[in-house]
Amino acid sequence: MKTTKDTRSAILDVAQDLVQRRSISGVSFQELAKRIGIKKGSMYYHFESKDELAVALLDRVADGLKNCFERGLHKTPDERLLYFFRLYQQHIGVGMRICPGGAFAGEWEKLSEPVKNAAHRLIEVQRSGVEQILAAGDAKQAFSLHGQSVRATANFIVSSIQGGLLTSRMLDSEDPFIDSAMLICGYLGINVTREALLG
User: Fold this and answer.
1) Which of 37, 63, 178, 181 is deepest in the core (most CB within 10 A)?
2) Which residues bind DNA (predicted)?
3) Where are the domains of the chain?
4) Number of helices and strands (H, E) in the chain?
5) CA 51, 29, 108 angle in degrees (round to 5)?
6) What is the CA radius of gyration of the chain?
């Protein structure tokens, strides 16, 4: 028998997969309940509204990503950056889904402030994590930032990767994402093969 915590996690797992494939507007409590195997009314025990569900989903992803960045601290700067790229491949499934945060961008004007804030936090966790990697690489002269600031380079990387995910989804191919990651590595002066990037 599932506990309340197990049921909540199961709801978030299914909701996240649907959001990454369809966006938040493509998620209904009716479908979630059916997929989880509970009554629709039971959904409201865990989440009072779709906004509450969206915030919980985004917060969970942000916390998980933050923990992943922290687990990579023992690696060299270039290993940390490759680890960051591989997180997308392993946890998002390039070509199949888009980033949970990016999935909310198309409906941005329709979102409530709490949902916008949670999506903003997730992007900030990504950017902050990349900034830490870049700062470490710059300090060790492992990266070439070409005279750009750490913040500007982090914005470039996050934007390129998000765009690569979106294009990969539309073309049903990993190539746009992998090519984006490879070009970022080349820009920074990291010598890596496609095979090594794929892990």
Assistant:
1) 181
2) 28-47
3) 51-198
4) 9, 0
5) 35
6) 18
Q: Is 97 helix (H, G, I), strand (E, B) or coil?
A: strand
Over residues 118-163, the pLDDT tens digits come to 999 999 999 999 999 999 999 999 999 999 999 999 999 999 999 9
pLDDT (tens digit per residue) in 11-48: 999 999 999 888 888 899 999 999 999 999 999 999 99
CA dihedral 22, 27, 11, 169 (to 10 degrees): 0
Domain range 51-198, CATH class:
mainly alpha
DSSP per position, 27-81: --HHHHHHHHTS-HHHHHHH-SSHHHHHHHHHHHHHHHHHHHHHHTTTS-HHHHH
pLDDT of residue 3: 59
Say which residue the tokens 């902050």 belong to: 128
Residues ≥6 apart with Cβ < 8 Å to 77: 133, 134, 136, 137, 140, 142, 143
